[in-house]
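Cross-posting from the chemistry board since nobody answered there.

I work mostly on the small-molecule side, so proteins are not my area. We synthesized zinc ion and want a rough idea of how it might sit in this target. Sequence and SMILES are below. Is it possible to get a predicted 3D structure of the two together?
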Amino acid sequence: MRTEGLWLKCDACGQIIWRKALEDNLQVCPKCEHHFRIDARTRLGLLFDNGQFEEFDGSLVSTDPLDFVDSKKYTARLEAMQRSTGLPDAIISAAGNLHGRRVHICALELKFIGGSMGSVVGEVITRAIERSLAGRIPLIIVSASGGARMQEGAVSLMQLAKISAALMRLDEARVPYLSVLTDPTTGGVTASFAMLGDLNIGEPGALIGFAGPRVIEQTIRQKLPDGFQTSEFLLQHGFLDAIVKRADLKNYLAEALDFFLV
Ligand SMILES: [Zn+2]
């Protein structure tokens, strides 16, 4: 998305769009329906009734368990991200009403180190699952993530198992969990909770995958088909249950919960 003051150009169709028109259309291109990325807080505002919700676990921060340094110290990276996003880590955990029904919604924040899942994201999601379980409150997770957080190494990988085990308990208790996969959802997030919903729902045109296409091509030594790793391709091949436009998502989730909770 290239911006020029009040106007911006759609990445997909090249149309010049008035920024206000894009906002009014939930950040979806009015011409070609390209779904622009939106941040976690905007997402929660769109899904909860009157845009109102309470937040949980906002005081959890990473302790940098590996004392990790890449091009800069992980602690410095975290601080910079916390300043620029106003969030302690790459997730907001919230509860409120969706068409009058109480739900928990966790939304990942792509702008915070690529929405990557480290110890904090793992713990925040696990606690949300446990609250859902205790109160028999449906859970929705909206993913936007590059996967596990490299800077926390094996600690981030352990989150996959921890979250998956907690989701299994939720499943055994018959409390619904709906997963919404937005652009992009990849790596360890796809390999765990994003694909474990009672329904796995993609936004149109989202990049969804595990490894990147180049790595796969090098591994299997085959050319990959067109549109590989898009929502549409995954729906066609049975990895998603539905593709739902952003404007229809709230109604769709409400109806799905009605169905699961009769
Ligand atoms: Zn467009």
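Reply from a structural biologist on the board:
Welcome over. Reading the output above for you: The chain is about 35% helix and 20% strand. Residues 10, 12-13, 15, 29, 31-32, 34 surround zinc ion (CB under 6 Å). Happy to explain the token format if needed.
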